[in-house]
């Protein structure tokens, strides 16, 4: 008597083989080594910075001439010094502009934070310089937890340090 599992296995294997054959054109067809030595796979050609000798696999329908030569301009017929119109998708260009705007805003926020910090440091240093130069006794806590008073040499060093901070942060 025949077992029904053999035809099912054969049918399943043929179905898997057919699915694999249909998926091959969709598979990554380019394989190259990037600048860090990592292997990259893609269905698109590698960036122009990748040398031809680092391209490990090309699709059968893509000769070496399909990739533009490194350093070649996007508009080969355009005179040098003339910017060519972007050939990318407008949505991609808009997204790039959004990313750039977000980065610019982040930089402005960081610059504002640094400026606020400098203003605070300036005010603190001016107050400390007034305190040190006022002549009133200043104490510090040493590593044993004891209070000790600053002598004239320590007071002069602290005043000089406060003036340096004022010179750097109060511009």
UniProtKB/TrEMBL annotation:
<protein>
    <recommendedName>
        <fullName>DUF4124 domain-containing protein</fullName>
    </recommendedName>
</protein>
<feature type="compositionally biased region" description="Basic and acidic residues">
    <location>
        <begin position="105"/>
        <end position="115"/>
    </location>
</feature>
<feature type="region of interest" description="Disordered">
    <location>
        <begin position="39"/>
        <end position="115"/>
    </location>
</feature>
<dbReference type="InterPro" id="IPR025392">
    <property type="entry name" value="DUF4124"/>
</dbReference>
<feature type="domain" description="DUF4124">
    <location>
        <begin position="15"/>
        <end position="70"/>
    </location>
</feature>
<feature type="compositionally biased region" description="Low complexity">
    <location>
        <begin position="59"/>
        <end position="86"/>
    </location>
</feature>
<feature type="signal peptide">
    <location>
        <begin position="1"/>
        <end position="23"/>
    </location>
</feature>
<keyword id="KW-0732">Signal</keyword>
<dbReference type="Pfam" id="PF13511">
    <property type="entry name" value="DUF4124"/>
</dbReference>
């Amino acid at each position: 008597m025949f077992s029904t599992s053999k035809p099912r296995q054969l049918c399943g294997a043929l179905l898997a083989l057919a699915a694999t054959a249909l998926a091959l054109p969709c598979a990554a067809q380019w394989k190259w080594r990037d600048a860090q030595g990592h292997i990259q796979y893609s269905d698109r050609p590698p960036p122009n910075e990748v040398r031809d000798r680092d391209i490990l696999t090309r699709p059968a329908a893509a000769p070496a001439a399909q990739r533009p030569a490194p350093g070649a301009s996007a508009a080969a017929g355009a005179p040098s010094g003339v910017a060519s119109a972007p050939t990318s998708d407008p949505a991609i260009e808009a997204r790039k502009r959004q990313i750039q705007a977000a980065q610019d805003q982040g930089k402005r926020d960081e610059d504002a934070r640094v400026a606020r910090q400098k203003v605070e440091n300036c005010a603190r240093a001016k107050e400390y310089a007034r305190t040190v130069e006022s002549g009133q006794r200043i104490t510090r806590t040493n590593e044993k937890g004891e209070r000790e008073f600053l002598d004239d040499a320590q007071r002069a060093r602290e005043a000089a340090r406060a003036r340096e901070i004022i010179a750097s942060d109060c511009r």
